[in-house]
């Protein structure tokens, strides 16, 4: 006895119905709701066979059947094999990022909230890991008499900015000269490497020690933060599902969500496969025995790779989840690639165009 086309159609109908209702499915339900041209008796016999094959489980003697983890695995593999994962509405996801947040951590946090909102499950987003981005340019733009905006552009197309204190007597021309010196001295270094070199630079530019000290601290914090940051969205979403109505089970799940290091190791996806789907016991995590984890990856221009994931009940809407993850992965890859870098730099140019033009002219005069 094996899995033929009729058995698979019945199994698919049971999975689809159970995903929507969380109620055990009987043969009469399938006969009435799905036009298969089969009698309830025939469907019932096929369901018995599916139970023997390990694809269905019967929680109670008088109840209908529910899909097993083995059934979900077959269902997901079929989705991937047939390529029936439709692309989620790109415009809807793009709308969430129209602000073009320049800080990587902001984007990661926002992505987790968007994913949880679009799927009604728990979302986890891990920052890119791999080669660290290298500094391309550093710009200092005056914003007041005693402060300046520092804009750091990396080869990953990522723009980072912060406000640092400056001496009152520093003019726009002086800030431009400092910008040039910093770019020449730190170009090609990672933020961590640049931070380590700042004391040496500060020793040569003692008049700007406060500015350089603040900049060094910012580089140190920013260079380290993305690797340790794990964004989680919609943790409480899981509590809305009957699978987690048991308080002890809910407490174990919420406790796991709080241990970010462990959560990151569970979610992290290796390799370049489009999706990884782990169902129930496949997660290898006791607290997630009734969960499925679906992950996808995104990348930066410098070759770093991050992971986005959805955690939901085993009866999750797999096609929808993979669709949203696939589209979000594309959006993040674009955001952290050429597009983000270009737009980020353009935004800063638009904001400071007048100041930069003035600085260029002043520098030309100095060179002459």
Task: Give structural notes.
52% of the residues lie in helices and 17% in strands. The protein has 368 residues and is an alpha+beta fold. The radius of gyration is 27 Å and the shape is elongated.
Topology:
Elements: H1 5-21, H2 27-33, H3 40-52, E1 56-57, E2 66-67, H4 69-82, H5 90-95, H6 104-119, E3 122-129, E4 135-144, E5 147-154, E6 159-165, H7 172-186, H8 191-204, H9 209-228, E7 231-233, H10 247-258, H11 260-267, E8 276-279, E9 291-299, E10 305-313, H12 318-335, H13 338-367
Helix pairs in contact: 1-3, 2-3, 6-12, 7-13, 8-9
Features:
368 residues; alpha+beta; 5-stranded antiparallel beta sheet; 3-stranded antiparallel beta sheet; 17% strand; disordered C terminus
Quick overview of this protein structure:
The chain is 52% helix and 17% strand. The chain has 368 residues and is an alpha+beta fold.
């Amino acid at each position: 006895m094996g899995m033929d086309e009729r058995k698979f159609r019945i199994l698919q109908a049971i999975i689809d119905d159970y995903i929507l209702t969380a109620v055990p499915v009987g043969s009469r339900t399938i006969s009435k709701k799905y036009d298969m041209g089969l009698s309830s008796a025939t469907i019932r016999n096929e369901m018995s066979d599916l139970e023997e094959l390990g694809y269905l489980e019967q929680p109670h003697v008088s109840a209908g059947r529910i899909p097993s983890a083995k059934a979900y695995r077959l269902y997901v593999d079929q989705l991937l094999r047939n390529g029936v994962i439709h692309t989620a509405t790109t415009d809807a996801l793009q709308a969430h990022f129209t602000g073009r947040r320049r800080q990587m951590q902001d984007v990661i946090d926002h992505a987790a909230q968007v994913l949880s909102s679009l799927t009604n499950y728990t979302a986890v987003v891990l920052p890119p890991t791999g080669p660290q981005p290298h500094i391309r340019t550093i710009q200092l733009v005056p914003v007041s008499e005693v402060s300046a905006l520092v804009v750091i552009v990396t080869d990953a197309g990522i723009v980072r900015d912060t406000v640092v204190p400056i001496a009152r007597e520093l003019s726009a021309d002086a800030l431009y000269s400092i910008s040039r010196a910093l770019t020449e001295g730190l170009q090609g270094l990672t933020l961590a490497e640049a931070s380590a070199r700042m004391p040496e630079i500060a020793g040569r530019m003692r008049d700007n020690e406060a500015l350089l000290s603040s900049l060094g601290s910012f580089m140190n914090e920013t260079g380290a933060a993305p690797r340790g940051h794990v964004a989680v969205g919609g943790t409480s979403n899981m509590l809305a599902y009957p699978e987690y109505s048991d308080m002890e089970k809910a407490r174990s799940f919420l406790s796991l969500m709080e241990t970010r290091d462990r959560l990151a190791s569970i979610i992290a996806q290796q390799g370049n496969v489009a999706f990884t789907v782990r169902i129930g016991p496949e997660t290898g995590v006791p607290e997630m025995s009734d969960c499925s984890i679906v992950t996808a990856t995104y990348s930066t221009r410098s070759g770093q790779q991050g992971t986005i994931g959805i955690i939901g009940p085993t009866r999750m809407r797999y096609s929808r989840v993979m669709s949203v993850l696939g589209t979000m992965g594309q959006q993040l890859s674009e955001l952290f690639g050429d597009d983000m870098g270009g737009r980020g730099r353009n935004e800063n140019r638009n904001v400071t165009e007048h100041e930069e033009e003035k600085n260029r002219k002043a520098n030309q005069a100095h060179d002459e």
